[in-house]
């Protein structure tokens, strides 16, 4: 007990008010249902959801532009030709594939 009185760093911990205040602060930061740790985790979740929301807004805008393009006759025909290799009756289609664009067994 004599060492406790001599140590200048432990002197503030002899006061009951400081001990109770320190215990309360530790309880509120780590153990309470509304602790700082839970709030920090929830804030990170909110940020992630906001980023996801922005991503989906950009995707919706991109899809709306695609829908506008496909709503015209020319746009629909272009899409059918490019994606499904459709052709008119009097046309022939030649598909040219380069060696580096072909899938090989190593790529799978």
Structural write-up:
The protein is mainly alpha-helical and 108 residues long. It has a domain at 48-87. It contains four helices and no strands. The protein has helices spanning 2-6, 16-31, 36-70, 73-84. The longest helix is centred in the middle third of the chain and has 35 residues, at 36-70. The mean pLDDT is 83. Residues 39-73 form a coiled coil. InterPro entries: FtsL/DivIC.
SSE sequence, one letter per element: HHHH
Overall mean confidence score, pLDDT: 83
- The percentage of residues in β strands lies in under 5%
Q: Identify low-pLDDT runs.
A: none
The 3D shape can be described as elongated
Helicity range: 55-70%
Alpha-carbon distance between the two ends: 74 Å
Rg on CA atoms, Å = 34 Å
Short description:
The chain has 108 residues and is an all-alpha fold. The chain is built from four helices and no strands.
Task: Draw up the topology in text.
Blueprint: H1 2-6, H2 16-31, H3 36-70, H4 73-84
What attributes characterize this protein structure?
elongated, coiled coil, 108 residues, Septum formation initiator family protein, transmembrane, FtsL/DivIC, 4 helices, mainly alpha
